[in-house]
Design a protein that fits this description.
Blueprint (H helix, E strand, L loop, with lengths): L15 H9 L5 E2 L4 E2 L17 H17 L4 E4 L6 H11 L3 E6 L20 H7 L3 E5 L6 H8 L5 E3 L10 E8 L21 H13 L3 E9 L10 H18 L2
Parallel strand pairs: 3-8, 4-5, 4-7, 5-6, 7-8
Antiparallel strand pairs: 1-2
Length: 256
């Protein structure tokens, strides 16, 4: 989903799907610990959507994709683009499924009511809009807050939580996972829309993802990877990392 029309700092995430696919071909495809080869998994790459610059058209298309994937019983993997793409996908899935929890790996809460002023649908408001629709949201790796966002978070303790790996075993039901690559420390992932120091390591992210996919009382219904910006990358390290996260997520999905 090559979309970055509401990017507020460093534009360029619209180029991530093409770049992540390109560098991903250079990664080795076999996971010996799971005995799986990504080239042999029952996965279809449906390519990129057209480039959208206007939110309503983006939302219409993503809602339709989410609905069709659920009707077909498929697990949906989407590569962005900026984080706003998560809103129409999860909002549509919420209509079709009960007991949906959104697991967000993100340095930021994205709970602003408007950002910039007067804009209700942007990468910085995406979780606020989902919270208003009754989606339970659990954050992993959040470390950058505005006062407005943190006060909103703490005023909704039942539905909005910052969690650790130690509490994951208590999660059950349908899960959608959203990975904003800026959750990872910029030392490993410098090319993101809004880099934030003091993040988690890639190993921590992958081990946590593996644990989420292995939970017995859950069903993963979708996953997205967002906010990679190839225009400011260094030797494609961030795009390669995103491709690796996507590949490992596919392994975890098919080893359940």
């Amino acid at each position: 989903m090559p979309f970055d029309s509401t990017t507020s700092f460093k534009p360029g995430t619209r180029f991530a799907p093409q770049k992540i696919r390109e560098v991903g071909w250079e990664l080795e495809s076999y996971n010996p610990s799971l005995g799986l080869d990504v080239e042999e998994l029952p996965v279809a790459d449906l390519g990129d959507t057209q480039l959208f610059v206007e939110y309503e058209s983006l939302a219409f298309t993503l809602r339709r994709i989410a609905r069709l994937s659920r009707v077909a019983g498929k697990t949906l993997f989407i590569v962005g683009g900026e984080h706003l793409i998560t809103y129409p996908i999860v909002a549509e899935i919420k209509k079709l499924l009960k007991n949906l929890t959104l697991i967000v790996f993100d340095a930021h809460l994205d709970l602003r009511d408007e950002y910039p002023s007067g804009t209700r649908f942007s990468h910085a408001t995406v979780m606020r809009r989902l919270a208003e629709e009754g989606v339970n949201i659990y954050y992993i790796g959040a470390r950058a807050f505005s006062r407005e966002e943190y006060e909103f978070l703490t005023s909704h303790p039942e539905s909005l939580k910052i969690v650790s790996r130690d509490t994951l075993e208590n999660i059950e039901g349908n899960l959608y996972i959203s990975i904003d690559v800026d959750v990872i420390d910029p030392a490993y992932a410098p090319a993101v829309g809004n880099p934030e120091p003091l993040g988690i390591t890639p190993s921590h992210l992958l081990s946590t993802l593996k644990e989420l996919f292995s939970l017995e009382r859950t069903k993963i219904v979708g996953l997205d990877i967002v906010e990679v910006n190839p225009l400011v990358d260094v030797n494609d390290v961030t795009s390669l990392l995103a491709a690796k996260i996507l590949m490992e997520s596919l392994f975890y999905n098919f080893s359940r």
